[in-house]
Fold this sequence. Notes:
Strand order of the largest sheet: 12-15-14-13-16-17
Structural class: alpha/beta
Radius of gyration: 21 Å
Amino acid sequence: MRVLVAMSGGVDSSTVAGLLAEAGHDVVGVTLQLYDHGAATGRKGACCAGQDIHDARRVADHLGIPHYVIDAEARFRAAVIADFADSYAAGETPVPCVRCNQTVKFTDLVALARDLGCARLATGHYVRRIDGPEGPELHRAADPARDQSWFLFATTRDQLAASLFPLGEMPDKAAVRAAAARLGLPVAAKPDSQDICFVPAGSYADAVGRLRPDALAPGEIVTEAGEAVGHHDGIARYTVGQAKRLGAAAQAGSARRIVVGLDAARRRVVIGPAGTGSRHVALREVNWLAAPRPRRCTVKLRARETPQPAEIVPTAEGAEVVLDAPALAAPGQACVAYDGSRVLGGGFIRAHAASG
């Protein structure tokens, strides 16, 4: 069949293109130019800019497949970068990779695939798409160390039905690199991307400050009772659960303290004892990949944490998660629900979750 492959210029998406071409599919490569500024232009290990676009083109030439570059800078700036800065200014901790997958990649590229007569969109994400009794399901990757299902919770059922994830069954990254080398791909040894792609200097707070200088305005560090115990140089430098950058305030009182909340309106960083948490987490912008009903499940409140048991209940505003054990939930982060390896759905953590 004809398949559109999203090629970022890295080894993962390049291997996907190579494997599909080797299997006899009619492969079309597309690279989204998402940004192209300063040091990012020649920087290796990022994606979707400068050197990476050049690498994607080299791979396409090697495979003998057509390759297109789409200028998506304006779309990316509005849907991802602006949202990233606005979220930090509102006292939240955003997940730009989720927003990018949700908007620029799956929404736009699935539509492009259909326009080009492609039956599927294929990406280099480490997840599995399994056809279940009620349609396609999203599952964790075979390699738990590479699993990216948390970042794809916002993929809709229709988008999932139109997608392929050839790397989901790979046992590990070494197997992917071995396949790339066997296919003779020029990026087989290219390093993985690490940082937020549009922050080439690695300082996300500076990137936020350029768009929302108010997010770097100084303010007070206060206890949950409102007592000022220190000062900070911008709420964008903090997230719930953080212990760094608190100075002497981290040791104020009898217990070690961490960030337990951000009051953007008053530019306050709120701290409390480590171990503070709630059993109740409210979600907004919930995307269901299974029938929305109350059910037992496991959830992840951050990408790299161990799933914890909970109950998820649909609400008019989205959903409420009731954890078996209290935990700290950072507003703006994603909470993703699982049944075993299957993604049931997920949403973004609301700033005003119920206490408990």
